[in-house]
Write a structure and sequence with these properties.
With about 350 residues, the chain is mostly helical. It folds into 3 domains: about 40 residues, no CATH class; about 200 residues, no CATH class; about 80 residues, no CATH class. About 75% of the residues lie in helices and about 0% in strands. It contains 15 helices and 4 strands. The chain has a two-stranded antiparallel sheet. A two-stranded antiparallel sheet has the order 2-3. A hairpin with a 2-residue loop joins strand 2 and strand 3. Helix 5 crosses helix 6 and helix 8 runs antiparallel to helix 11. It is globular.
Length: about 350
Amino acid sequence: MFYRRAGIFHTTYAGDRGLFPIPFERRAMLVLLAFALVAPFVLSSLTLTSYVRPWLIWTSAVLGLNLVLGWAGQFHFGYAAIMGIGAYASVHAARNGVPWEIAVVLGGLVASAIGVVFAFAALRVKGLYLALSTLAMQFVVDWVISHVPAISGGVSATLQAPPMKLLGQAVTSEAGTYYVVLGWTILVTVFMLNLRRTALGRALVAVREKDYAAAVIGVQAFRYKLVAFATSAFIGGVSGAMLIFGFYRAVTAEQFAVNVSVELLAMVIVGGLGSIIGSFFGTAFILLLPGQMNTLVAWISRMFGLDLGTETLAHIPHMVYGATIILVLLVEPMGLGKLYGNVRNYLLVWPFGYVRK
């Protein structure tokens, strides 16, 4: 019906390895891209600034975390600290007269340098020990940021971010900020789509499955773990800068605390390890669904005339939200991206039922 392969003949390796070999997927991507470009003209300002823009920024960060967690198979409980490093570095650079584009890249490079420090823990320990090591580093970075006035201005201080600029021109409109954020998210997505087709992507997967077996066939686990952590940290650092310049407009240490690292990890797991489209789904699920649950529960209580207290109304959405997460993982432990893949695989052969035997 949709994902039909009839008439598709791969006569070259390039055609066989294309990003979207099925025509329907190419058309769907073009439609989505067209909608993304016209979104500021068809969506309300509230939807654009409160839902779409933060969703895009956090999705780019989740893609970066998925690189080290889903592709390289390395636990990382300190990704919010990486984003905070990039945010603070870029804000300080911009406040000191560095052009905005260079300041953002500089924030990514500083985060990448710190990410290599996280990588050295990955070279020594594995599994839960690595998770504990990165969690400890998260707390260390939190403390340093909060208690070094040169970085954050002191405990509970707020550092105002300079206006976003492109080629020296201030980006003040909501639509302009949205397009900058959209461009970064598309860049990260295209990078991740191409990564899985490269030798680097295949080497990371080999390290994820069995690092010592990968070493036997010539894959240097030491090198590729460093590359994974450094690249992931660069994406996280720039995403942290985008979060400040494109959404918060100011940076505080609480914005990148340990609970944010847990939420990022939940986005990756719910979306699906190693799944690019799952990163988009998982981010939307964790970031946007709680607010919608609050609205839905309040509407149901009003419609049925339920006399629920304020405290009860505040806790019921969280209970429903948590139950929804459990239900999704029970139905498909590999996340929302795998659910989409199951539907896609079914439609590839529909309506020929004999293939299910």
